Amino acid sequence: MTFLEYALIGYVIGILTTAPVGPVNIMAIQHAVHSGFRQGVYVGLGAVLADSIFAACAIFGVSAVTNFIDNQFYLIEMIGGVLLLGFGIKIWHTHPHIHKDGNGKRRGFWGEATAAFFMAITNPGAIFAFIAIFGVLGDYRPAHGNHLGALTMVAGIACGATSWWVVVSASVSHFKHRIDDHWLDRINHIAGVLLIAFGGLIYLNLVWKLLRAKV
């Protein structure tokens, strides 16, 4: 695979892992509502750094045990599919809430980014999500020893996540008077459906490979 393909795959992963509405998304949305576009992006960039660290740990960890993964490929796919289905179902049933009674206090880039970074880095579920995704990518993940390919995918993830925060902050600051809990629910439902679909495709692909192996 080319570096561009690794970057594009990473870009999609970055959006999928960032889109579910959790504490950081709520924080970014609230700051964009109360203080404008830049404050929302500041929060997002702190989360991007945390996600990039998780992604790097996951992808280099996966690459380091490539032989094990290749020998246990079907088991990895089954476990990864279950995790993605579980994440998707959990996100679908999560109902975030936003408060619109903030005072508009601005802490600046470092204050907002640092707060979001520590909020995101203390979420152990994030690294398991990346491990699950990288573990089932198969031939679409960088081969063992392809450090540049792995870094390219991590960079793509960072770009995808950053794009999400920019779009969210811009949209929220523009339509801030229309943002409510139902809007957040719709985001979670879309993200949940995508993760469930991804998990379902993994099982369809697994069944297809098993059928081909028997022919």
Keywords for this entry:
215 residues; mainly alpha; 0% strand
Tell me about this structure.
- The structure is a single chain.
- Helix 3 runs parallel beside helix 6, helix 5 crosses helix 7 and helix 5 runs antiparallel to helix 9.
- With 215 residues, this protein is an all-alpha fold.
- It has one domain.
- It is 80% helix and 0% strand.
Roughly how much helix do the residues carry, as a percent range? Answer: over 70%
Shape type: globular
Biggest beta-sheet profile: none
Strands, count: 0
Name the average pLDDT. 77
Structural class: mainly alpha
Compute the gyration radius: what is it? 18 Å
Distance between the termini: 28 Å
Number of domains: 1
Strand content: under 5%
Q: Which regions contain 5 or more consecutive residues with pLDDT less than 50?
A: none
Number of helices: 9
Task: Please write the string of helix (H) and strand (E) elements.
Answer: HHHHHHHHH
Give the gist of this structure.
With 215 residues, the protein is mainly α. It has helices at 3-18, 23-35, 37-64, 66-71, 73-92, 108-121, 124-135, 147-174, 181-214. The chain is globular and about 60 Å long.
